[in-house]
Amino acid sequence: MTRYYLPIIIGGLLLAFWFSSDAQEIAAGVAIFLFGMLMLEDGFKLFGGGALERILERATGSTPRAISFGIVSTTLLQSSSLVSVITISFLSAGLISLIGGVGIIFGANIGTTTGAWLVAGLGLKINIAAYAMPMIALSIVLVFQKSKPLRGIGYALAGLGFLFLGIHHMKEGFDAFKDQIDLTRFALTGLLGLFVYSFVGTIATVIMQSSHATMVLILTALAAGQISYENALALAIGANIGTTITAIISSIGANFQGKRLALAHLIFNMATAIVALVFLAPLRDSVDWISDVVGIAPGDYAMKLAVFHTIFNVLGVVLTLPFLTRLITFLERRITEPVPDVSRPRFLNEAVDEFPQTLESALRKEVLHLYENAAELILHGLNLHRKEVFATDDVAGLVRKSRSLIELDIDEDYERHVKTLYAAIVEFTTRAGDKRLAPEMADRIYAMRDIASDIVQAVKSVKHLRKNILRYTTRPQNVVTELYDSLRTEIARIVAEIQKLDMAALEDRSALWLDQERARIEEDARLTSVRVDALIRKGKLSAAAATSFMNDSGYAYGAMRDLIKAARGYYIERDSAMAELEQLLSLDEEELNEAMAGRGNQSVSTASKRTVT
Amino acid sequence: MGLKKLAAKVEDYNARLESGKASKIKPGHVEAVLQKLRAKSTELEAEIAAATSTDKKARLQGKLAIAQTHIARAEWLLEELA
User: What is the pTM of this model?
Assistant: First the structure.
């Protein structure tokens, strides 16, 4: 597509420049305007420091709130496309609901009409270039400041300055252009005019990927008398259809929810456009009536176009709102949720790459997905079922009873369910590392990668164990079976404890609980060693079997330590002060031993009891 | 007990705090953690009372010992912050 699209655009522009120097001014005006929009976006991203994303998470509690958020954010950013891209990204990361996302899109369609008011009311009435120059000059001073908010304000100010400058050049270009060529000669009336100009409006917006820029172009051309009012109305309707292209493009890299939202955007804007085309005559009458009421001069077509743009977008929302639930049902039927494939990344996709909040949230969810796969594989590797382990109060009893072989190719399952996810996480974190993230966020992202690595190590250790687990625990072989059963029990207990921590309410749980498991692992490792020594001395365990078991117990305790390390990293408080506190209170190995020392004698006596059994 | 090590950790934390590399821990943060730890401790005590096997009792007592150590450390830290 790009192979043809790009040369055609460049060729068309060069041809236009060849014939008219005023076309150069108009095109440069559009380019400066779009550049201004980009700077405005960058400015808000820097200035907001993620505030927009944080608000977005909370703004979708109800449909009116979501619509209001869409209106306000699009008014501030002057870009419905940016708002729709952010919304798709948040929806893909699972941070907002589909109905909330659709509400935001509805609001964005109303918010985008403020742009037309800005241009028709201010841009064409006063010499905005006079404001643009000082704004751009002042902005550059701010852009070179170290402070992020100041730089943000600088970019936003520059963006606004370039928007104004772009409008000025478009206006100048059209004013000069009308002296050479009268575009009104191409004006079309009737139904043909409606459809042709709607189509032109759609295409222009698809090319510029901004309905805002198209609206400014229409308004300036209209103010210069280069297009008829009727054709301008059709162009504005077309721009509303074309604007959905940005959402469609960003949904390509999004998951099924992002695709649903893009389809909702297309359906909504198409329906609004059809209603506007069908009821164009009554809408025009309404515009005239409202213009009379608010005191807009009958010949001020630019302001009338702004009124029309607002009316038909608000009308679209009002007409569609009663069908919102049906629209959601249709979207869910049309684009079905794919059957979860545990071997594929579920949350990491290009759509969540855009914003730090979605990036971190998606990564956390994917690491949890990896852990769930790993926990299942670890327990199956030990011939245990996850549901039974999580449900029992007596893990040791369950392990003793679990002698049936679980058919499993652990190497293949590791490749499919663990390694592929781990590879996706590593790739994603590396990609995230290339972005300019805040240092604390970058640290958290890399911590997630380390957690994934610990989880993978735990699975690898259990892979080593699997052979002897099959050999010694599928049928009772006295003391060796007991030894391997104790390893199975201890690993299963760790997995169950991590599950308990995950299930605990956020306000109740603490990663410090895992210190209790760390202490337990070290004590169990010590007791196992004492027990093996005693068994060898008594001749109940051959040296060869003991060596083999000690190797396996190394893998088993390694897996337990890795799992606990991963859980500590994952469940550590996300508030940085609370995380600092947990790290201060957490015990190192020596401190764990000291804390357990009060029970030292008891442990030794328990060990001796276990040794003689 | 291990409070000497904790004191050293706090000293290191204070140095990082002064250089702007750490977030400030407020008494409210410690109180929130203490509440969680005390709730866990009470839960463990109830589990110990209900446990029938000596092995399980011993395991739970080990956990309780760690929880009580955390509580002691948090209380000490709270006093330091006050």
Answer: 0.67
